[in-house]
Amino acid sequence: MSELSVKHLLGIKYLKEEDIQLIFETADHFKEVINRSIKKVPSLRDITIANIFFEDSTRTKLSFELAEKRLSADVINFSAGQSSVKKGETLIDTVNNILSMKVDMVVMRHPNPGAGIFLSKNVEASIVNAGDGAHEHPTQALLDSYSIRERLGDVAGKNVVIVGDILHSRVALSNIFALNLQGAKVKVCGPRTLLPKYVETLGVEVETDLKKALKWCDVANMLRIQKERMDLSYFPSTREYTQQYGVNKAVLESLDKEIVIMHPGPINRGVEITTDVADSGQSIILDQVENGVAIRMAVIYLLASKIK
Ligand code: CP
Asked: Does pTM surpass 0.90?
């Protein structure tokens, strides 16, 4: 396979396993490029990309911008908080105004699930979903799987547990799709109130006992409690959540093997993960961030080759 089967990256749900392998092989090349003294290639000199963010971001926004610049694309950035969205302009009007400045690709983060899909049906540009509400965060899942492949050699056959607030997590949903496509075994672990009712229909098992889940897994992906998406409390207190679902050094040392610890960020140190775990040799959290640039370069490069 030499090109992606899709014109947009709206979610892992729309990808084939071969798309993921093509993105990984392309990212292998770009990872080598960004570790050279000259970290830039001229591949996308004729492409203009708009990063439009309607929700806060540190890693994803910077990582996309850096990936685009490493590929020599022209880049414009838009933050809804400082824009005419505040004066009532619609999403389609906003994007069509941006596109009339001859933009080829839009990378969008939006609080509403499906915003990227909606945009892809209404404007003439390649759309990359940089996170849409509690729906999908495809490049995060790609960089997560790529980081597992880098640390453990392969994703197929690995036991991966996703721990925490599965209900509000776009990272969880995209990871479930990506891991299942690649032949990993997936469990979700957290309080029942933070697990979607029909989560098993996505091809995962539920384990509410963290210790059992950690004993079973090769990789634990720890998620943040997304208080910004909650209008009520889903557990009695943060302290009790941490007692049952937080990972600390003592818990890891009680296992008879060394598991890999992941986190998409931002971390709430002392809640879902302690500092001694986050900063330990078992943690690949900063590798995930580093790999994010290579993965996003690969995604943009492959989508741009379908525009030309
Ligand atoms: N992982 C992630 O999406 O982080 P940001 O919200 O900082 O982009």
From this structure: yes
